[in-house]
Amino acid sequence: MAIKNVNEKPSKISLKKLYYALMTDEQNETYSEDIKVLEMPISLTQTPNFSEASLDAGDRVVDQEAQLDSVTIAGETADLPIEVQADWFGHKLSSAGGLIVNSNDTPRFLAIGYESGSKLVWFFKAKFKPGEEAANTRKKGETTYKTYPFSGEALPLSTGNIKHVVDTRNKGVTETPETFFASVQMPEEKTTVPTP
To answer: For the chain, what are the domain ranges?
Structure first.
């Protein structure tokens, strides 16, 4: 059996931009062609959620299974404009240019992507809720910044796909942030030619 080295490449911590597109048709899982960009993200954390089961027999574990159900996403931005809050959380815009928050508002499904160093990522079906918001008085001699937290879940599409990750450092990758985030495209599986 041949031993093949995997091409490992350390990557630096980075979070450059957030991208999103509203899901316009949940049945057919299609998106708006209008890709919007947030240029001041602070953090984004992904936590995979699994359904797990194991079978014990003969005083030992004889089988084990784990299935990825969803990915919990938590993030923070330096600003979350009113337009974005309306898109994400299902709020309405007022004629005065404000935001109307109603108890009947429901968050909308969207694709959310991010650029982290050489990695480009699209989550295909996420839904977010706003985080805690606080207001404090300004203290003499101090300057503090307000940030905007959010959290939610990324669910699988009908195909089972949850996200697509591309590393632009890898051989044969031609994607750039400009092409990858130009639209929400479904990835195609790489076909392997069997060796004779």
So the answer is: 19-54+62-180
Q: Which helix (H) or strand (E) holds 30?
A: strand 30-31
Contact status, residue 40 vs residue 139, Cβ threshold 8 Å: no
Indicate the residue type of 73.
Answer: I
What is the distance between the alpha carbons of residues 133 and 101, in angstroms, rounded to a whole number?
A: 14
Encode pLDDT of 19-68 as tens digits. Answer: 999 999 999 999 999 999 999 999 999 999 998 888 888 878 878 888 88
CB 182 within 8 A of CB 35: yes
Q: CA 31, CA 132: separation in Å to the nearest integer?
A: 29
Instruction: Please list the alpha-helical segments (H only) found in 79-169.
Output: 82-89
What are the structure tokens assigned to 87, written together? 């898109």
Residue type, 195: T
* pTM over the 0.90 mark: no
